[in-house]
Design a protein that fits this description.
Structural class: alpha/beta
Protein name: Transketolase
InterPro entries: PDH/Transketolase, THDP-binding, Transketo_C/PFOR_II, Transketolase-like_Pyr-bd
Oligomer: single chain
Number of helices: 12
Helix content: 25-40%
GO molecular function: magnesium ion binding
CATH class of the largest domain: Alpha Beta
Strand content: 15-25%
Radius of gyration: 20 Å
Pfam families: Transket_pyr
CATH architecture of the largest domain: 3-Layer(aba) Sandwich
Number of strands: 13
Length: 317
């Protein structure tokens, strides 16, 4: 089966044939996937070389000219390195475009810290008006990419990853969906993108509700409030956020959504400590406590669970 990046290249190449408004800007990364499309549309597939600030500047200029620009490279080079250009060339200029990143937080650990970007979503969250998609499967990536391309002049970030769940979930580009329902008032775990399978394994046998989302901005506060509506007064609402980037990135949004009720929020994700050894993706997952065993230990130490023998069985959706 293809990867998210391969799906991105194939879907976008087809859409370039169909939509004369679409344009792709690359910075040497991902050029092989667009070689044929560049031959057909040399004026709308542009490779600026290893110049990430120029990548964003060209994208902003294309947007001002009325095109729908799609900018692609590793997350560390797409969000972190040219951040000022994103702030000015899209935000201040009032233009829209689609950023499509690769690499996730540590998909290519052999690349070292220059290719790791666990803080990308948190950094983009300091800007106004960005939609952020974090697909958990190539099929979800395709659906969200099509949604992003058709989103008028909105600013959209699509965070692709080599990590994936075993099967896709229906995604619409907005909102949370319940994939597992505990009893009324049970702790709620929000799983983002490719971490859903690990979360479901971690909470197996526990009385917990699991919400899934591949779209983290806008944050679906209404769905979270509905999920904790029957939280017991003794503990208040207990919410665990499991995100594949910097831990606590969505804690503020969750706190604002639950400001009217007593609540506790635990943000799990990539820890701030820098891992100086390259290692493997699996070793990074374990080091950050995002493997199923670690997640279970961290979730059960935080939330109040009814013993399994006394709890109504959880239902998967």
């Amino acid at each position: 089966m293809d990867t998210m990046r391969e799906r991105f290249a194939s879907v976008t190449s087809r859409l370039l044939d169909e939509d004369p408004r679409l344009a792709v800007v690359l910075a040497d990364i991902g050029t092989d996937g667009f070689r044929q499309a560049a031959g057909r549309h040399p004026d709308r597939v542009v490779n600026v070389g290893i110049r990430e600030q120029l990548l964003v500047g060209v994208g902003g200029g294309l947007a001002l000219a009325g095109l729908r620009p799609v900018l692609h490279t590793f997350a560390s080079f797409l969000v972190e390195r040219p951040f000022e250009q994103l702030k000015l060339d899209f935000g201040y200029q009032g233009t829209g475009g689609v950023l499509v990143s690769a690499g996730g937080s540590y998909d290519w650990p052999a690349g070292g810290f220059t290719h790791l970007a666990p803080g990308d979503v948190a950094l983009l969250d300091t800007l106004d008006g960005w939609t952020v998609h974090v697909p958990g499967h190539p099929d979800e990536a395709e659906a969200l990419l099509r949604h992003a391309y058709a989103a008028g002049d909105e600013k959209v970030y699509v965070r692709l990853s080599a990590q994936r769940n075993a099967r896709p979930r229906p995604v619409s580009g907005e909102g949370f969906s319940a994939v597992r329902r505990g009893r009324a008032g049970a702790p709620v775990v929000v799983a983002v993108g490719p971490l859903l399978d690990a979360v479901l394994t971690a909470v197996e046998g526990l009385d917990a509700t699991v919400l899934y989302t591949a779209t983290v901005r806008p944050f679906d506060g209404a769905a979270l409030r509905a999920a904790v509506a029957d939280a017991p007064a003794a503990t208040g609402a207990e919410v665990v956020l499991v995100e594949p980037y910097l831990a606590g990135t969505s804690a503020r949004a969750a706190g604002e959504a639950l400001s009217h009720v007593p609540h506790r929020v635990l943000g799990l994700g990539v820890r701030r400590a820098e891992l100086r050894r390259y290692g493997t993706v699996g070793e990074h997952l374990a080091a950050h406590g995002l493997d199923p065993r670690s997640l279970r230990a961290r979730i059960t130490s935080f939330a109040s669970f009814t013993p399994a023998s006394a709890a109504a069985p959880a239902r998967r959706s």
